[in-house]
Structures are given as C-alpha cells and as structure tokens.
C-alpha cells in the first residue's frame, strides 16, 4: 500500500497549482485503507456528473454548519452533489434509506448527532462507525495564524481506534446495583490502526508516532495494543516510535504539546486526548476530523466536545462553521480533489488570520452566515 499511495500523493501534488502548493497544509493526505482491495470512486461518474456525497445535517448546530459547507461548495463550483437526509440522535436506528445512500456514495458529511445520556438509547454515531467499520478516527489539532493560544507550534494528529475498546457497548447488569462493562482489544484491530498511523506519518513527512496506553495497569488489553504498535513500527524504521502512559500524556499535552506529532490510541483514550489537544490549539470549533474504513468514510467536526452546540448558539445562529469546513476539505482530498481542498483551506485560514469575522468561541461576535460569506469572499 505504501508504494501505491505514495504514487498517488506525487500525482496529486504535481497537478496542484504552484501558488497553492506553497501554502502550508494541516492535513495533506489520508491513506485509503482499502485502496488495493477496492478501487475508490473517482471524483466524477462516467457520464461527467459530479460526485454524490451523503449529507446528514444532524442536531443542534449541525444544520447551520452543514449549510455553510453547501454554500461554500456551490460558490467554488466543487464537483460534488449532496444527498441530504434528516437524521437525529434520539432515533433508535439510522433509517435504511440513509444507510443505503452511504453504502452507495461511500462518503458522508455529517453534523453532530446528539447522544442521549443513559436510558439505554444507543449512540447513532457508534452505530455508524461499527456498521460501516470506520476503524480510523483522525483529528488534526493545530495552531492557526491570527488565533492566539497559550502554546505555539502545536500540530498534533490523533489517530484513534474507532470500533472496540471501552466503546464496544458490551454492558450488562450482573445483579441489581452491579454493572459489568467489557473492554475488548484485539490484535487485528490494534495492528490495522497502528498501520494506518505509520502510513499517515510516512505520507505526510511526519517524524514521530507516539502510542498512548495504560499497559502498566491493563497489562493484557493495553499490552496487546502496545505489542501490535511495536511490531508495525519495525516496518517503518525511518519514523521514530515512542510510548506514553495516558495520564502522563494528558499532563504533557497541557504543559508541552509541541513535543507530539502523530499519536495512535485505543478508543477511549483517543477521545480524551483529541478533545484536550483541540482545546489547547484553539478550541473544538476549528478542529477538523474524519472517520475512515476500508470502503466508507464519514467526515465531521473533529473534536466531539460541544459538537452539537448550545441552544443559544442555534437560536442566534452563531455556531462556528470552521471545523466542518476544514473537515469538508479533508473530504475533498479523500475524493481526490486536492485543488478544491487547497482553495477551501486557504480561504478559511485567511479569514481566521484577518480576524474580522469570528464567532464567539474565537473571541468575536459574528454569525455563522457572516463567517461563511467571508470564506466565500476569500475564495
């Protein structure tokens, strides 16, 4: 896979305009896990029709920020059409027509879906990841010019195993008042997430991969995860590999985050680490992310904290669209449309740097539409 994906990367770079190649990218290229097994969809269908993508606006701020993406895509004439579906987190299952659409288009852009706390209602987010085997969660947390933070030179990619661990959903009540929850770690899933992390580092000229664990306590489960990471690391001798215990990792993140490059984690740790890193680098409102499997991919706001948003943000229409706009740029690269991805990322970063249009979480008072209009103008 390494040789094939490297050739693709070179071709994408060679076809990108020189003035766009010179701009700094946060996410250059996401490996396609099933590239050798399943031929990916091309940006256009055989008859020249733009590429269809499933769109789930979701709950809370979701419709606001997904609408921003739709407007920007239309403004820059991106060869993408959206198949839009009304899905909400309080549903007991994802409707069949939605699943059929995702399995047909193979790519989905999604707003936040609220996850009910307790009550036995399953998370539709987890359902989608398991049903489509989206075993990779990737969140890129990085400083943006013009957005002051306590730390500089932060550019962390958190690659998290997305299908097992504490999120396996295997819980039951043994006797009244006693609940047993199972954490499942397998060698197969550990090896493939480690492979993805090292392949990402290789393709994007990253220097270090750090495995996050708690093997000092969970010696068998996290021990198996570490053993798998070590085996994969041997096949990438040019990339430095190290390990860190998750509690020390959190302390190091808030004190010296610039030491981290690519981080590979089991499911629960990755959720915590990604949100911590996002808060350090500028907030959850500006961090892109994607969920990728062998056949399918879903792109959404990278850090989950506040993903759905507060009612006042929805009422005043002041949700931050930056995270989903950058996630949609990641989606454009996945669709092999790097020129459009570069234009979108450059426009978003220009708006942030100029600082005239920012939502409340970034110290401004702009509405979602004002930020969207500014991005369209910057295109």
Report on this structure.
- The chain is of the alpha/beta class and 379 residues long.
- It folds into two domains: 1-134 and 283-379, Isopropylmalate Dehydrogenase; 150-281, Isopropylmalate Dehydrogenase.
- Helix content is 40%, strand content 17%.
- The protein contains 13 helices and twelve strands.
- It has helices spanning 2-14, 18-21, 62-75, 96-105, 124-131, 187-203, 221-233, 246-255, 267-281, 311-316, 322-334, 338-354, 368-378, and strands spanning 51-56, 80-84, 107-110, 136-142, 155-161, 171-175, 178-181, 208-213, 240-245, 262-265, 288-292, 297-301.
- A hairpin with a 4-residue loop joins β11 (288-292) and β12 (297-301).
- The protein is globular.
- The chain starts with a helix and ends with a helix.
Write the layout of secondary structure elements.
Elements: H1 2-14, H2 18-21, E1 51-56, H3 62-75, E2 80-84, H4 96-105, E3 107-110, H5 124-131, E4 136-142, E5 155-161, E6 171-175, E7 178-181, H6 187-203, E8 208-213, H7 221-233, E9 240-245, H8 246-255, E10 262-265, H9 267-281, E11 288-292, E12 297-301, H10 311-316, H11 322-334, H12 338-354, H13 368-378
Parallel strand pairs: 1-2, 1-3, 3-12, 5-10, 8-9, 8-10
Antiparallel strand pairs: 4-5, 4-11, 6-7, 11-12
Helix pairs in contact: 3-11, 3-13, 6-7, 8-9, 11-12, 12-13
What labels would you give this structure?
disordered N terminus; Isopropylmalate Dehydrogenase; alpha/beta; 2 domains; two-stranded antiparallel ribbon; 17% strand; 379 residues; 10-stranded mixed β-sheet
């Amino acid at each position: 896979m390494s040789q094939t994906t490297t050739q693709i990367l070179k071709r994408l770079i060679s076809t990108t305009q020189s003035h766009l190649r010179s701009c700094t990218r946060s996410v250059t290229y996401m490996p396609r896990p099933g590239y050798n097994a399943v031929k990916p969809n091309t940006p256009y269908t055989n008859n020249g029709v733009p590429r269809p993508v499933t769109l789930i606006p979701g709950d809370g701020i979701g419709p606001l920020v997904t609408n921003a993406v739709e407007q920007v895509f239309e403004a820059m004439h991106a060869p993408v059409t959206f198949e839009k579906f009304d899905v909400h987190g309080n549903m007991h299952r994802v409707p069949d027509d939605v699943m059929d659409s995702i399995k047909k288009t193979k790519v989905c852009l999604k707003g936040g879906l609220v996850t009910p706390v307790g009550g036995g209602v399953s998370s539709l987010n987890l359902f989608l990841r398991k049903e489509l085997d989206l075993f990779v969660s990737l969140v890129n947390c990085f400083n943006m010019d013009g957005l002051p933070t306590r730390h500089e030179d932060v550019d962390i990619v958190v690659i998290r195993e997305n299908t097992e661990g504490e999120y396996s959903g295997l819980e039951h009540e043994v006797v009244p008042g006693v609940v047993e929850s199972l954490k499942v770690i397998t060698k197969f899933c550990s090896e493939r997430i480690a492979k993805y992390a090292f392949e990402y580092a290789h393709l994007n000229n990253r220097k270090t991969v750090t495995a996050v664990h708690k093997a000092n306590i969970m010696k068998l489960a996290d021990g198996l995860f570490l053993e798998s990471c070590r085996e994969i690391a041997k096949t990438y001798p040019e990339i430095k590999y190290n390990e860190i215990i998750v509690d020390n990792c959190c302390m190091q993140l808030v004190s010296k985050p610039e030491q981290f490059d690519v981080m590979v984690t089991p499911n629960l740790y990755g959720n915590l680490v990604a949100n911590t890193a996002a808060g350090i680098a500028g907030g959850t409102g500006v961090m892109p992310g994607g969920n990728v499997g062998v056949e399918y991919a879903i792109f959404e706001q990278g850090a989950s904290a506040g993903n759905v948003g507060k009612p006042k943000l929805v009422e005043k229409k002041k949700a931050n669209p930056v995270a989903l706009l950058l996630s949609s740029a990641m989606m454009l690269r996945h669709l092999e449309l790097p020129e459009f991805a570069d234009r979108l990322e450059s426009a978003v970063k220009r708006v942030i740097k100029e600082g005239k249009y920012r939502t409340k979480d970034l110290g401004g008072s702009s509405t979602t539409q004002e930020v969207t209009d500014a991005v369209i103008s910057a295109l």
